[in-house]
Known about the structure:
By secondary structure, the protein is mainly beta. It is 0% helix and 48% strand. The strands form two sheets. It has a five-stranded antiparallel sheet with strand order 1-2-8-3-6, with no helix packed on it. A three-stranded antiparallel sheet has the order 5-4-7, with no helix packed on it.
Amino acid sequence: MAITITNQTIGLTNRVLKDTAVTNTAVTNVTGTSGSLYLLYANNTANSNAIYIKLYDTVETPVVGTTVPDYVFMIDASSSQQIVMTAGTAFANGISYTAVDSGGTAGTTAPSTPLTVWMVTS
């Protein structure tokens, strides 16, 4: 996991998070607080199969394959995708996430190559 968080200093309260090694290991409460997610951008160009980004609204470490994700986004094989939440999607507790090769709750297998993911949060 290689996470950087950049607070915006031009009058915005948004933060830009970049994680260059997203796998099936859960990243817990990355923002450290509640907030909203406005943008999720995932680079899956290195994998020849679809990968699923699972988001959890929790400050606890999600158990991959057991904890029910609040949101699941499929990122097509060999592509990058951007998901925009125009009004923001609220996370009352915190944003935790993982990436696996199958949707739903049960998937636990890591992508062959870790994804790079960017998030814009407040």
